[in-house]
Design a protein that fits this description.
The chain is mainly beta. It contains three helices and 31 strands. The two termini are about 25 Å apart.
Protein backbone atom coordinates (compact mmCIF):
# COMPACT_ATOMS: atom_id res chain seq x y z
CA UNK A 1 0.00 0.00 0.00
CA UNK A 2 1.77 3.21 -1.15
CA UNK A 3 1.85 6.34 1.00
CA UNK A 4 -0.56 8.12 -1.34
CA UNK A 5 -3.32 5.68 -0.36
CA UNK A 6 -3.00 6.36 3.38
CA UNK A 7 -1.97 10.04 3.35
CA UNK A 8 -5.48 11.16 4.32
CA UNK A 9 -5.23 8.90 7.36
CA UNK A 10 -2.82 11.39 8.90
CA UNK A 11 -3.05 15.02 7.80
CA UNK A 12 -6.35 16.63 6.89
CA UNK A 13 -5.36 20.21 6.16
CA UNK A 14 -1.86 21.58 5.68
CA UNK A 15 -2.93 25.08 4.69
CA UNK A 16 -1.07 27.79 6.52
CA UNK A 17 1.91 25.65 7.40
CA UNK A 18 5.26 27.08 6.29
CA UNK A 19 6.21 23.64 5.00
CA UNK A 20 2.80 22.95 3.42
CA UNK A 21 4.01 22.07 -0.08
CA UNK A 22 7.11 20.25 1.14
CA UNK A 23 5.06 17.94 3.36
CA UNK A 24 2.33 17.44 0.78
CA UNK A 25 4.67 16.47 -2.04
CA UNK A 26 6.81 13.87 -0.26
CA UNK A 27 6.20 10.85 1.98
CA UNK A 28 7.04 11.77 5.57
CA UNK A 29 10.25 9.75 5.70
CA UNK A 30 11.49 11.64 2.64
CA UNK A 31 10.51 14.92 4.31
CA UNK A 32 12.62 13.98 7.34
CA UNK A 33 15.58 13.05 5.12
CA UNK A 34 15.53 16.52 3.58
CA UNK A 35 14.27 18.68 6.46
CA UNK A 36 17.62 20.09 7.56
CA UNK A 37 18.59 21.11 4.03
CA UNK A 38 15.14 22.61 3.41
CA UNK A 39 15.32 24.75 6.55
CA UNK A 40 18.87 25.91 5.89
CA UNK A 41 17.80 26.96 2.40
CA UNK A 42 14.63 28.81 3.39
CA UNK A 43 14.93 30.16 6.96
CA UNK A 44 16.08 33.80 7.13
CA UNK A 45 19.04 34.40 9.47
CA UNK A 46 18.76 36.14 12.82
CA UNK A 47 19.98 39.74 12.87
CA UNK A 48 23.63 40.21 13.78
CA UNK A 49 22.69 42.28 16.81
CA UNK A 50 21.61 39.10 18.63
CA UNK A 51 24.45 37.27 20.35
CA UNK A 52 24.72 33.54 19.75
CA UNK A 53 26.43 30.58 21.40
CA UNK A 54 26.29 32.18 24.85
CA UNK A 55 23.27 32.54 27.16
CA UNK A 56 21.27 35.71 26.56
CA UNK A 57 22.05 38.18 29.33
CA UNK A 58 18.68 39.91 29.44
CA UNK A 59 15.15 39.27 28.16
CA UNK A 60 14.75 40.58 24.63
CA UNK A 61 11.90 41.37 22.27
CA UNK A 62 12.67 40.58 18.61
CA UNK A 63 10.26 42.21 16.18
CA UNK A 64 9.12 40.76 12.87
CA UNK A 65 11.24 43.45 11.20
CA UNK A 66 14.39 42.30 13.01
CA UNK A 67 14.52 45.11 15.56
CA UNK A 68 15.69 44.21 19.04
CA UNK A 69 14.50 45.78 22.31
CA UNK A 70 15.28 44.99 25.94
CA UNK A 71 12.00 43.68 27.27
CA UNK A 72 12.07 46.02 30.26
CA UNK A 73 11.81 49.15 28.07
CA UNK A 74 8.47 48.06 26.60
CA UNK A 75 4.99 48.63 27.93
CA UNK A 76 2.76 45.57 28.13
CA UNK A 77 -1.03 45.59 28.03
CA UNK A 78 -2.92 42.27 27.96
CA UNK A 79 -0.12 40.49 26.16
CA UNK A 80 0.50 43.28 23.66
CA UNK A 81 3.78 45.20 23.70
CA UNK A 82 4.34 48.88 22.95
CA UNK A 83 7.31 51.19 22.56
CA UNK A 84 6.65 54.92 22.71
CA UNK A 85 3.02 54.29 21.81
CA UNK A 86 3.77 52.04 18.84
CA UNK A 87 2.61 48.44 19.05
CA UNK A 88 5.31 45.88 18.31
CA UNK A 89 4.79 42.39 16.90
CA UNK A 90 7.44 39.86 17.66
CA UNK A 91 8.92 37.16 19.90
CA UNK A 92 10.14 37.16 23.50
CA UNK A 93 13.56 35.63 24.13
CA UNK A 94 14.20 35.28 27.85
CA UNK A 95 17.56 35.59 29.55
CA UNK A 96 19.45 32.33 29.82
CA UNK A 97 18.29 30.94 26.47
CA UNK A 98 21.08 29.82 24.14
CA UNK A 99 20.87 30.22 20.35
CA UNK A 100 23.37 28.06 18.49
CA UNK A 101 23.50 29.62 15.04
CA UNK A 102 21.59 32.27 13.12
CA UNK A 103 19.33 30.11 10.95
CA UNK A 104 16.55 30.30 13.53
CA UNK A 105 13.27 32.06 12.81
CA UNK A 106 10.84 33.30 15.45
CA UNK A 107 7.37 34.43 14.34
CA UNK A 108 5.22 36.84 16.38
CA UNK A 109 4.05 35.59 19.74
CA UNK A 110 6.81 33.00 20.15
CA UNK A 111 8.12 32.74 23.71
CA UNK A 112 11.51 31.19 24.49
CA UNK A 113 11.83 30.58 28.22
CA UNK A 114 15.06 30.67 30.29
CA UNK A 115 17.44 27.76 29.82
CA UNK A 116 16.14 26.68 26.41
CA UNK A 117 18.90 25.50 24.04
CA UNK A 118 18.15 25.99 20.33
CA UNK A 119 20.42 24.77 17.54
CA UNK A 120 19.98 25.83 13.93
CA UNK A 121 18.17 25.37 11.61
CA UNK A 122 14.72 25.93 13.12
CA UNK A 123 11.47 27.64 12.19
CA UNK A 124 9.01 28.51 14.97
CA UNK A 125 5.60 29.69 13.81
CA UNK A 126 3.49 32.21 15.70
CA UNK A 127 2.63 31.61 19.35
CA UNK A 128 4.94 28.62 19.71
CA UNK A 129 6.06 28.05 23.30
CA UNK A 130 9.61 26.82 23.87
CA UNK A 131 9.66 26.18 27.57
CA UNK A 132 12.32 26.12 30.27
CA UNK A 133 15.24 23.72 29.75
CA UNK A 134 14.00 22.38 26.43
CA UNK A 135 16.69 21.00 24.09
CA UNK A 136 16.10 21.64 20.39
CA UNK A 137 18.89 19.95 18.46
CA UNK A 138 18.26 21.39 15.02
CA UNK A 139 16.17 20.71 11.92
CA UNK A 140 12.95 21.46 13.82
CA UNK A 141 9.77 23.09 12.56
CA UNK A 142 6.73 24.08 14.61
CA UNK A 143 3.36 25.28 13.39
CA UNK A 144 1.26 27.93 15.11
CA UNK A 145 0.57 27.36 18.80
CA UNK A 146 2.89 24.37 19.17
CA UNK A 147 4.57 23.58 22.50
CA UNK A 148 8.04 22.20 23.15
CA UNK A 149 7.95 21.70 26.87
CA UNK A 150 10.11 21.53 29.96
CA UNK A 151 13.10 19.15 29.53
CA UNK A 152 11.73 18.00 26.19
CA UNK A 153 14.32 17.05 23.57
CA UNK A 154 13.51 17.42 19.87
CA UNK A 155 15.61 16.79 16.77
CA UNK A 156 14.85 16.60 13.06
CA UNK A 157 11.10 16.75 13.62
CA UNK A 158 7.94 18.61 12.69
CA UNK A 159 5.18 19.80 15.00
CA UNK A 160 2.17 20.93 12.97
CA UNK A 161 -0.12 23.62 14.38
CA UNK A 162 -1.23 23.00 17.94
CA UNK A 163 0.99 19.94 18.47
CA UNK A 164 2.29 19.67 22.03
CA UNK A 165 5.07 17.77 23.76
CA UNK A 166 4.73 19.68 27.00
CA UNK A 167 6.52 17.56 29.63
CA UNK A 168 9.66 15.39 29.67
CA UNK A 169 9.33 14.06 26.10
CA UNK A 170 11.77 12.84 23.48
CA UNK A 171 10.81 13.49 19.86
CA UNK A 172 13.38 12.24 17.37
CA UNK A 173 12.98 12.13 13.58
CA UNK A 174 9.21 12.32 13.89
CA UNK A 175 6.17 14.22 12.63
CA UNK A 176 3.31 15.31 14.89
CA UNK A 177 0.06 16.24 13.15
CA UNK A 178 -2.20 19.11 14.14
CA UNK A 179 -3.29 19.16 17.79
CA UNK A 180 -1.35 16.04 18.71
CA UNK A 181 -0.79 15.86 22.46
CA UNK A 182 1.98 13.77 24.00
CA UNK A 183 1.41 12.82 27.62
CA UNK A 184 4.20 13.50 30.09
CA UNK A 185 7.21 11.26 29.59
CA UNK A 186 6.28 10.12 26.07
CA UNK A 187 9.29 8.91 24.07
CA UNK A 188 9.32 8.56 20.28
CA UNK A 189 12.27 6.20 19.83
CA UNK A 190 14.07 6.55 16.51
CA UNK A 191 16.91 4.02 16.41
CA UNK A 192 16.79 0.23 16.52
CA UNK A 193 19.21 -1.64 18.76
CA UNK A 194 20.94 -3.19 15.74
CA UNK A 195 20.95 0.15 13.91
CA UNK A 196 19.44 -1.33 10.76
CA UNK A 197 17.44 0.63 8.20
CA UNK A 198 13.83 1.01 9.24
CA UNK A 199 11.29 -0.87 7.16
CA UNK A 200 7.64 0.12 7.53
CA UNK A 201 4.86 -2.44 7.24
CA UNK A 202 1.66 -0.96 5.84
CA UNK A 203 -1.25 -2.99 4.51
CA UNK A 204 0.87 -6.13 4.22
CA UNK A 205 3.51 -4.32 2.18
CA UNK A 206 6.99 -3.31 3.26
CA UNK A 207 8.49 0.09 2.61
CA UNK A 208 12.23 0.53 3.03
CA UNK A 209 12.64 4.11 4.20
CA UNK A 210 16.39 4.14 3.68
CA UNK A 211 16.69 5.63 7.17
CA UNK A 212 18.40 4.21 10.22
CA UNK A 213 16.68 6.85 12.33
CA UNK A 214 12.92 7.25 12.08
CA UNK A 215 10.60 7.82 15.01
CA UNK A 216 6.82 8.12 14.72
CA UNK A 217 4.38 9.70 12.28
CA UNK A 218 1.32 10.77 14.30
CA UNK A 219 -1.82 11.97 12.55
CA UNK A 220 -3.96 14.92 13.55
CA UNK A 221 -5.33 14.81 17.13
CA UNK A 222 -3.46 11.67 18.17
CA UNK A 223 -2.98 11.52 21.94
CA UNK A 224 -0.59 9.47 24.05
CA UNK A 225 -0.90 8.81 27.76
CA UNK A 226 1.91 9.39 30.22
CA UNK A 227 5.11 7.34 29.84
CA UNK A 228 4.26 5.90 26.43
CA UNK A 229 7.16 4.61 24.31
CA UNK A 230 6.64 4.35 20.55
CA UNK A 231 9.03 2.13 18.61
CA UNK A 232 11.01 3.29 15.56
CA UNK A 233 8.80 3.26 12.47
CA UNK A 234 5.40 3.68 14.17
CA UNK A 235 2.61 5.26 12.09
CA UNK A 236 -0.60 6.17 13.93
CA UNK A 237 -3.60 7.54 12.04
CA UNK A 238 -5.57 10.58 13.13
CA UNK A 239 -7.92 10.59 16.15
CA UNK A 240 -6.16 7.64 17.77
CA UNK A 241 -5.19 7.13 21.43
CA UNK A 242 -2.35 5.27 23.09
CA UNK A 243 -3.08 4.33 26.69
CA UNK A 244 -0.57 5.27 29.42
CA UNK A 245 2.60 3.22 29.98
CA UNK A 246 2.22 1.31 26.71
CA UNK A 247 4.96 0.39 24.23
CA UNK A 248 3.08 -0.84 21.15
CA UNK A 249 4.80 -2.62 18.29
CA UNK A 250 5.94 -0.61 15.30
CA UNK A 251 3.68 -0.57 12.25
CA UNK A 252 0.64 1.19 10.85
CA UNK A 253 -2.43 1.88 13.01
CA UNK A 254 -5.47 3.21 11.12
CA UNK A 255 -7.41 6.29 12.22
CA UNK A 256 -9.43 6.01 15.41
CA UNK A 257 -7.39 3.16 16.88
CA UNK A 258 -7.36 2.76 20.68
CA UNK A 259 -3.99 1.21 21.48
CA UNK A 260 -4.16 -0.60 24.79
CA UNK A 261 -1.30 -3.11 24.45
Amino acid sequence: MPWEEIRESFFEDLKGEYIENFLRDLPPWEVLKNLKEFLYDTVPPLPRIISIKTPLKEPLFLTEEGELYPLNVLEENEGRFFHRGKELRGAILHAGAVLMGRKIYFAKGVVVEPGAFLEEPCYFSENTQIRHASYVRGAVYTGAGAVIGHTTEVKNSLFLSGAKAAHFAYVGDSILGKNVNLGAGTKLANLKFLKKEIILEVGGQKINTGLKKLGAILGDRVQTGCNVVLQPGTLIGKDSYVYPCRAPSAGYYPPGTKIKA
